[in-house]
Design brief:
This protein has 222 residues and is α/β, with parallel strands linked by helices. Helices cover 43% and strands 22% of the residues. β3, α4 and β4 form a beta-alpha-beta unit.
């Protein structure tokens, strides 16, 4: 009988802890993004022709908004795709969660992958697209960052939407973290100046993005 009682107590305590873990709105949003309705979509392209001297490489096309569980979801898709160093992560996104985008960029860099901005049709043909806000941080993770003619990179000042005790200090913290990340990825600090100029999206021209070393290899239209 005591064994049954102890087992019931253990199950009860686990259930209570699970309820506490999932009772907050942020937790439910995370689990929904991770398992039920991911904010991102993926498509594996066995031979993506980016044009120019790059030629054809396997690519994982990622599109959609970067949600609260996007980094874990992205890592799982990479494991399934079996990409190797030099293969391409093709991005198309309006942005989303800054922290998740930073982690995605770190994953891309740790695996030696390259990045480009574009979308793929059913046949795998690459077309221009846009990558804005937090998406640019993920794009910066590429060991080589291809610039497809017609695709656009958009930056803006990052702000915290959640209530904080000191908004100025929090903005400085976020700016410092983004600057540190971009510098490690080989991007010029001038990108922070471009970001800080407006809360609206500022679209970077190809030459401007090259001057920042955000685009490292302009390859023209596929």
């Amino acid at each position: 009988m005591w064994s049954v009682v102890i087992f019931a107590l253990l199950i009860s305590s686990v259930g209570i802890q699970a309820y506490r873990d999932l009772s907050g709105p942020d937790a439910w949003t995370y689990w929904k993004d991770q398992y039920l309705s991911p904010s991102l979509n993926s498509q594996l392209i066995t031979r993506a022709d980016l044009g120019g001297p790059v030629g054809s490489r396997p690519a994982l096309a990622i599109s959609g908004r970067i949600g609260p569980a996007a980094a874990n979801w992205f890592r799982d898709r990479l494991d399934e795709a079996h990409l190797v160093a030099g293969d391409v992560v093709l991005l198309s996104s309006p942005g989303g969660d800054l922290n998740q985008a930073l982690i995605i960029g770190e994953i891309i860099r740790s695996r030696g992958l390259t990045t480009a901005v574009g979308v793929a049709d059913a046949s795998g043909r690459i077309r221009p697209a846009y990558c804005a806000s937090a998406c640019v941080l993920a794009y910066a993770g590429g060991t080589t960052r291809y610039g497809i003619e017609g695709s656009m990179l958009g930056v803006h000042r990052f702000v915290t939407t959640a209530p904080v005790a000191d908004p100025v200090a929090d903005t400085q913290r976020v700016t410092g973290a983004v600057l540190h990340y971009m510098t490690r990825m080989g991007v010029s600090s001038t990108v922070i100046e471009a970001m800080s100029q407006t809360r609206d999206i500022r679209w970077l021209g190809t030459r401007e993005a090259e001057a920042m070393n955000l685009i490292t290899d302009p390859i023209g239209r596929p």
